[in-house]
Design goal:
Helices cover about 65% and strands about 0% of the residues. By secondary structure, the chain is mainly α. It has three domains: about 250 residues, Tetratricopeptide repeat domain (Serine Threonine Protein Phosphatase 5, Tetratricopeptide repeat, Alpha Horseshoe); about 120 residues; about 60 residues, Serine Threonine Protein Phosphatase 5, Tetratricopeptide repeat (Alpha Horseshoe), CATH 1.25.40.10. The radius of gyration is 24 Å and the shape is elongated.
Length: about 450
C-alpha cells in the first residue's frame, strides 16, 4: 500500500525501509523525489524520516541528495551523514548494500560507486531499486553516452523495470537519459510520453521528456514539456519564497529554442528582455546570466541580426558570452575582433581550438571571398569534431555541419551543401535552419523531390 500512496504525484516504488511506518512513508517519498533529481524536497523528506528513528536508511538518502551525478558536478555530499548510522542498525540486504555503495562513492568516487552497485545487483537481481540505482551509476560513468556499452546497459536495465512498472519514475527517467542520443532516442519515446504523467509534482519530470522530443525533432511536444516545467519552477519559487535564480532557467532556455525551431523567433525577444531585467545587476546569478547568453545566441543564430549582439548581451566574459561575440565577429567579417575574442575564449576553454580556427577563417572569408576554401576546410574539421561528441539538448548556436552547408551555398557548390544539410538533419532532425538550407541547396542542385520534402517539414 505504501508504494501506491504517492503514485498520483511522484510515481510508484516498492522501496521498503526498515523502521516504523512514519519512517517508511517519508523514506519512500524521499526516494521518489531522488529518482526525479528533486534534491531539496528529497532531503527534507529524508530528514523527517530520520526524526522517526530508528530509520537508518534515511541517512543514506540524505547523503545521496548532495551528489548530482548527471549534472557534471564534482562528487558532492557529506559522508559524515553516513557516520550517523548506528553500527548495530538493523538493515535489509538492500539497505546495507546501498549504504556501502554510498560510502564507496564518497571514499573513492563514482567508478567505485558503480562497481559496488554492480555487485549488489548481482546479489539482488530481482530488486528494482538496486537495479535502477545501478543503471543510474552506469550512465553517470558513460561520459553522457560516449561509452555506448555502459549507456545501453543502463537503458536495458531501466527498460526492464519500466516494462514491469511503467509508473516508476526512476525507470522512465534513467531510460530517457541513457537513450539521449540521435541513434537511441526512439527507444525511450514511450518513457518520455509517460514520465510527466508519472510524477507531475516533480518539476524535473516535466522537463525530461523533452530530451527525447528534441532528439527526434518533435518541437511541439518539446515546447509543451518545457513550458510545463518553467511554470512549475516559477510556482515553486513563489510558493517557497525563493531567489528568482532558483527558477527553472534550464527549461526556460530549452523553451526559447523550441519556439525558434517552430518559426516563432519573435517570441524569444521578450524572454531575453525578461531575463536581462531580472539579472543584469545580479552578478552572483552566474547560471541565470549564462542562460541569458544562451537565449541571445539562439535568437541571433536564427535571425542573423549580429550587429545587435553587444546590445543584447550582458557585460559578461563567460565562455558562452565570449562564444556569442566570436560568432558575431565571424558573421560580420571582423577579422581583428575574431582574433581577439578567439584568444580570450581559449583562455577559459582551451579545447576550443578548432572552433576558434573556424571562426577566424569564416570572418576572413566575409571580407575576402577568395579565402572561402580555407573557411570550408576549417569548418569541416570543426564539424567532424562536433559529430564525434554526444549530441544532447538543443543547439543554441548553428552546428558546424550546417555552417559548412552555408559555406557551400555561398560557393555555389550546391550538391555538397545538400549533403552537409542532410548529414546535419540526421544528427539533429527538423532543425529549421538545416531544413531551409536543404530546401535551397537541393532546389539549386536540381533535386526537386528533396527540396519539396524539406519544404513540407517546415513549420506552418
Amino acid at each position: 500500500m505504501l508504494a501506491l500512496l504517492l503514485a498520483a504525484n511522484l510515481g510508484v516504488s516498492h522501496f521498503t525501509a526498515t523502521g516504523p511506518k512514519a519512517c517508511q512513508r517519508k523514506v519512500l517519498e524521499g526516494v521518489l523525489y531522488l529518482h526525479s533529481f528533486v534534491y531539496d524536497e528529497a532531503r527534507e523528506a529524508f530528514k523527517e524520516a530520520e526524526a522517526a528513528a530508528p530509520c537508518p536508511i534515511a541517512f543514506w538518502g540524505e547523503a545521496m541528495t548532495y551528489d548530482h551525478p548527471i549534472w557534471d558536478d564534482e562528487v558532492g555530499g557529506n559522508d559524515a551523514i553516513l557516520a550517523r548510522i548506528p553500527p548495530d542498525a538493523k538493515l535489509s540486504p538492500m539497505e546495507k548494500g546501498l549504504i556501502e555503495s554510498a560510502r564507496a562513492l564518497y571514499d573513492k568516487g563514482r567508478e567505485a560507486w558503480m562497481e559496488t552497485l554492480g555487485h549488489l545487483h548481482e546479489q539482488l537481481p530481482k530488486d528494482d531499486e538496486v537495479a535502477l540505482f545501478y543503471a543510474l551509476s552506469l550512465y553517470a560513468n558513460s561520459g553522457h553516452g560516449a561509452n555506448v556499452k555502459r549507456a545501453m546497459e543502463a537503458a536495458a536495465i531501466a527498460m526492464d523495470v519500466f516494462e514491469r512498472n511503467p509508473n516508476h519514475p526512476g525507470a522512465a527517467h534513467y531510460l530517457i537519459h541513457a537513450c539521449d542520443s540521435p541513434d537511441h532516442a526512439i527507444l525511450a519515446l514511450k518513457a518520455a510520453r509517460r514520465y510527466a504523467q508519472i510524477a507531475p509534482a516533480a518539476g524535473h519530470a516535466l522537463h525530461m521528456p523533452s530530451h527525447i522530443f528534441v532528439q527526434l525533432g518533435m518541437w511541439r511536444e518539446a515546447e509543451a514539456s518545457n513550458l510545463a516545467a518553467v511554470n512549475a519552477g516559477m510556482e515553486r519559487v513563489e510558493r517557497l519564497d525563493l531567489n528568482p535564480e532558483q527558477a527553472d532557467w534550464h527549461s526556460y532556455a530549452w523553451l526559447a529554442e523550441t519556439r525558434i525551431e517552430l518559426g516563432r523567433a519573435g517570441e524569444v525577444v521578450p524572454m531575453i528582455a525578461r531575463m536581462r531585467g531580472m539579472f543584469q545587476n545580479d552578478h552572483a546569478a552566474y547560471r541565470a546570466r549564462e542562460v541569458h547568453a544562451m537565449l541571445v545566441s539562439a535568437w541571433l543564430s536564427a535571425t542573423q541580426k549580429w550587429a545587435g549582439t553587444d546590445e543584447l548581451l550582458l557585460p559578461d566574459n563567460g565562455e558562452i558570452a565570449l562564444r556569442v561575440r566570436l560568432n558575431a565577429a565571424a558573421a560580420l567579417g571582423d577579422d581583428a575582433k575574431a582574433a581577439l575574442l578567439g584568444e580570450q575564449l581559449l583562455k577559459v576553454a582551451p579545447s576550443a581550438k578548432l572552433l576558434v580556427a573556424a571562426k577566424k577563417a569564416q570572418a576572413h572569408s566575409v571580407r575576402d571571398s577568395g579565402s572561402i576554401g580555407e573557411a570550408i576546410e576549417a569548418t569541416r574539421a570543426l564539424a567532424d569534431a562536433e559529430d564525434r561528441e554526444p549530441a544532447s539538448g538543443p543547439a543554441f548556436w548553428t552546428p558546424a555541419r550546417e555552417e559548412l552547408g552555408d559555406l557551400f551555398v555561398r560557393s555555389h557548390r550546391f550538391a555538397e551543401a545538400e549533403e552537409a544539410f542532410r548529414a546535419a538533419l540526421e544528427r539533429r532532425p527538423n532543425r529549421l535552419h538545416a531544413l531551409r538550407g536543404l530546401e535551397e541547396s537541393a532546389r539549386s542542385a536540381g533535386d526537386l523531390r528533396v527540396a519539396q520534402e524539406a519544404q513540407s517539414k517546415l513549420p506552418k
